[in-house]
Structure formats: C-alpha cells, structure tokens
C-alpha cells in the first residue's frame, strides 16, 4: 500500500507499536504473577524463552521468504502465521488464575499485597529500577544493534562475524532459564550484578584485544546472557518489590524506561561509531558498572516477600 510516502511509513510503525502492545512482557508476566509464587523466576524465564526461539527461527524464515517471494509476501506470511498459530493458543490457554480473580475481588485478602503505581513512584526502588533498566537497555540494545559493525571495526571478517552472532539467540535462551532458576534461590539484584559483570569483562577484552575471534565469541556469549536476563529481571523485581496486586500498572511505568532506552540506543551507538567504537565501548563499560551499583542499592525485599 505504501508507494514511497515517508509519512505513511512512520504512521504504519506507530500503528504497529500501538496494536502490538498486547504482546509485550507486561501481559504475559502479569498472568504468571497470578499463578506462581515459589517458582515465579523459573516460570518467567521459561515463558520468555519464546523470544529467544523467535530470534532463532524467524530471521532465517523471513530471509527465505523474502528471497523466494519478496518482502511483501514475507510480511503477509508472518502476519498470517500469528493468526493461525499464536491466536488459537492465546484464546484456549491464556486465562487469569481463578484464585487471583477471587482475591482481587476481596481487597482485604492478605494473600494479595501490592502498592499502586503512585505509591511505587514515591519509593527509591522504583526510580533505581527504572534508571538501571534504561541504562541496561541503552548498552545491550546499542551493542546488539551494532554488533556487526563493531566487530568489523575490530578487524574481524564478515563470515566470522556471522557465525559468532549466531550464538546470541542460544545464549539469550540460556540466560532466561538460568536467571529464572537463580532468582528463585538467591537475592535477585545480586544475581543481576553477577550476570552484568560478565559483559563488562568481555567488552573490556574487546577494547584491548581487537581482532580476536575468541574475545568476539565471549562478547556474544555474555551479551546474550545479559540480554536474556534483562526483561526477566525487570518482571521479577517488579513483582518482588511492589507486589502482585497492581503489578501490571507498576510494570508499565518501569517498562517505559526500558522502551525509551531501547529506542535511543541504536542511533546513539551508530553515530558514536562513526569515528571508531572504542570510546562508546568504554562508556558502555562505565554504564554497566553503574548498573551493578544501582542493583546493589535496591535493598531488601519488602517484608511481604521475605521468606522465613
């Protein structure tokens, strides 16, 4: 339908963003908070692996369809696939927990606690979590979106970069599963600090040891782990610090930080890399260190979430 109109192009993507809001993690993790308590981290990690699987399956499938039938047919096939494959599962299985619905109806039920978004915004945890997720989104999305040109600038060849990048989808899945299991057993901000320490080490090596395939693989592995952990930690920490009663409202407020960071990251890194990526990589290391310090400043879980 678009024959070259830039306005229509922007309008299409605005409409896509609005209509696609129903597929954001806010929706899925709200339901998970209804059903799971003790194993919530595992449930979130397992559910969110779907994004990693999509990253493995959809790009080669789309490339094949574009090469064989053109990009218009590829877009149509993806849309039809969502309706035919995904929608029936959502209609049949995607339901609120009956217990959660009953507890919400009884506001005095002590089994469901939580603060409103207005109350959450008065706490330091809300702003710490929002700022740290903004920074992690900037770093991780910026590095992933510029992964190939960064490695090219460091002396690697295109063919080598292609297979190095292929490990990202796998490690995103591993990161989601591993973090989900760990946060059920240990203090989640501490787990986040350890996970985000790994890309700091590998990015530092990339700055000081350019052209090394081994270092490039380490960067891909650790970035994949951090990318896999990021949204899972966002969902888990929101539920832990602010409770399940108003989870979706609070999560939406915090997710806005992540969305802004992810939106501004690619152009920032692309422009910064015009003169070489070493400077922006060093800045990335500094931002990740700040993220770790902020995670550690989150403090203890509220008493409603502390286990005996």
Please explain how this structure is put together.
The chain has a domain at 28-50 and 115-300: MFS general substrate transporter like domains (Growth Hormone, Chain: A), CATH 1.20.1250. Helix content is 78%, strand content 0%. It has helices at 6-19, 25-35, 40-69, 71-93, 98-105, 117-120, 124-145, 147-153, 158-165, 167-183, 188-208, 213-242, 247-272, 278-296.
Could you write a compact summary of the structure shown?
By secondary structure, this protein is mainly alpha-helical. The protein is built from 14 helices and no strands. The radius of gyration is 21 Å and the shape is globular.
Tell me the layout of helices and strands.
Blueprint: H1 6-19, H2 25-35, H3 40-69, H4 71-93, H5 98-105, H6 117-120, H7 124-145, H8 147-153, H9 158-165, H10 167-183, H11 188-208, H12 213-242, H13 247-272, H14 278-296
Features:
Growth Hormone, Chain: A, mainly alpha, 308 residues, 78% helix
Q: Which class of the domain at 28-50 and 115-300 in CATH terms?
A: Mainly Alpha
CATH fold-level topology of the domain at 28-50 and 115-300: Growth Hormone, Chain: A
Mean pLDDT reading: 80
- By DSSP, the count of extended strands is 0
